[in-house]
Amino acid sequence: MATQRIELGLTASTPSGGGCGDGCxxxxxxxxxxxxxxxxxxxxxxxxxxxxxxxxxxxAVTEELDALDGVEVAGIDLNVGGVxxxxxxxxxxxxxxxxxxxIDEAGYALVR
Length: 112
Fold this sequence. Notes:
Layout: E1 3-8, E2 29-31, E3 35-36, E4 43-50, H1 55-66, E5 71-79, E6 83-90, H2 96-105
Antiparallel strand pairs: 1-5, 2-4, 3-4, 4-6, 5-6
């Protein structure tokens, strides 16, 4: 299985309501504690998400994360059929519970 890296800059959008639909195989996902980044006042969080299979999955997750206050940018290392890595840079106002809820709204759960 190949790993595909997709770097996404988040912009304002209206969440689609979540879920990837037919044949996607929505799975489970886990939050790492945010750590301070080199940029002053920003925190980096890394989430492990299982079951993402396509670009639509990536869009569903990033749209939900984009809706959270304080999320600056997200990048996803898509691992089709395996555990994908979601990296988020935020100002720290979105906590682990809010990040997990956004992933859940997209149709996934954090690997704990």
